[in-house]
Amino acid sequence: MTDVSATGGRTPSRAVEQALVDAAERVLVRDGLGGLTVRAVAAEAAVAPMGVYNRFGNKDGLVAAVLARGFEGLRAATADAADADPVDRLLTCGRNYRRFALDHPQHYGAMFGAGWAAAVPTEELVDRANAAFQALVDRVGYAVDRGALRPGDPVDTAQLIWSSVHGAVSLELAGLGRTADPAASYEALLQMLLDGLR
Amino acid sequence: MTDVSATGGRTPSRAVEQALVDAAERVLVRDGLGGLTVRAVAAEAAVAPMGVYNRFGNKDGLVAAVLARGFEGLRAATADAADADPVDRLLTCGRNYRRFALDHPQHYGAMFGAGWAAAVPTEELVDRANAAFQALVDRVGYAVDRGALRPGDPVDTAQLIWSSVHGAVSLELAGLGRTADPAASYEALLQMLLDGLR
DNA sequence: ACCTTTGTAGAACACCGTTCTACGTTACTG
DNA sequence: CAGTAACGTAGAACGGTGTTCTACAAAGGT
């Protein structure tokens, strides 16, 4: 459907597509989700607003592409925890998750905030999100296999960890943290998870 | 500032204010956050759009009033756990939290979704949110005093619980749950929290 | 070389939050 | 009981949004 090269027509250069997503990311970081308008992105990419509709269908398609990149970044950030010790690997994974959210708050908010449940998610978006989640499932399985975590369905366990970690990061980003030191509270959360799932 | 009766002028009947918030809640439930427009609310309340600005300043003031009601509802839902056993009281509190979110998904999404960190929160809104959180802190303190939870700052512990519970509910509402039975996963989360904080 | 196809540009439409201006309606004042 | 000043209201209007429409220019196939 979106594969234009299959029609035999001229390749739509594909570079403009990436330029639009790049521009959208810059606008998102600079002006927040509220400032992410079709006109602003098109102007940032030096393209007519119509280009967004030619390549992404509508605004949702564009933000879906941006969100897909966000999930890819989240996957990369949490997947590069290569510690040999399974507990260390999980801890690094959890710390990288928070670091990603704090480094890219606009992305994170858009990825999990409003507008997700509303708009029907793109297939690519779902794939990226699943890949990011799978990275966590793998690390949980690694820990279970080595006896660092109690046996059980890795998916269930990963979902449980994800819930807690996402909640903590989400509340911290929203400014709803009531603790003095968010970083210390987050470490305590990770430790509690390890204790509770031991 | 908003206390009109102090000026000696005619009382703005106050009923219209509530009628507007009532209408806003109906529109929110019916059409979602995206359909919550000033015109739609005004029409639902049989009032001119200008009434919103006279009584709430702008749209954010109106949604802040709706969100304040939402936090009051959340506080009421989680505070009516009167079990004698401290563990049961915490469990009931956690279950009621999820029930509130599932019963009022639009409210919950608006309360913790985008638009919170962006708009400057009203004082009443902060008060309601703090009251809801305090209900949890009280229950944690109750459990700590009776030895059901390990000693520690009740605020830190409550924040930790809130993070996990909010994360689970938030992901479930967003449709990002990857487990077969969300209710069972939530129960497992609560149990894990009790284990980890024992 | 022609023609079809395709992306582009800019105006245009409906809707949004918000503001402005004219207009009752109400409550205080002499 | 007038007169007046303040106040909330109604409706149009402004800038901005997502989206669509219509004409136009450029590239590929025959």
Which properties best describe this structure?
elongated, 198 residues, disordered N terminus, homodimer, DNA-binding
Unreliable residue runs of chain A: 1-11
Mind describing the biggest β-sheet of chain A? none
Main interface pair? Answer: A-B, 43 and 43 residues
**Shape of chain A from CA axes?**
elongated
Oligomer: homodimer
Q: What structural class results from the helix and strand content of chain A?
A: mainly alpha
Number of helices of chain A: 9
Strand content of chain A: under 5%
- Report, as a whole number of angstroms, the end-to-end distance of chain A: 47 Å
Helices and strands in order:
The structure is a homodimer of 198-residue chains.
Chain A: H1 15-31, H2 38-44, H3 50-56, H4 59-79, H5 86-103, H6 105-112, H7 123-145, H8 154-173, H9 182-197
Helix pairs in contact in A: 1-2, 1-4, 3-4, 4-5, 4-6, 4-7, 5-6, 5-7, 5-8, 5-9, 7-8, 8-9
The structure holds a DNA duplex (30 and 30 nucleotides).
Provide a short characterization of the protein structure.
Chain A has helices at 15-31, 38-44, 50-56, 59-79, 86-103, 105-112, 123-145, 154-173, 182-197.
Q: Can you characterise this structure?
A:
- The structure is a homodimer of 198-residue chains.
- Chain A is mainly α and 198 residues long.
- Chain A is built from nine helices and no strands.
- The longest helix of chain A has 23 residues, at 123-145.
- Chain A is elongated and about 55 Å long.
- The termini of chain A are far apart.
- Chain A binds chain B through residues 32-34, 109-110, 112-118, 129, 133, 155-156, 158-160, 162-168, 170-171, 173-179, 185, 188-189, 192-193, 195-197, and chain B through 32-34, 109-110, 112-118, 129, 133, 155-156, 158-160, 162-168, 170-171, 173-179, 185, 188-189, 192-193, 195-197.
- Chain A binds a DNA duplex (30 and 30 nucleotides) through helix 3.
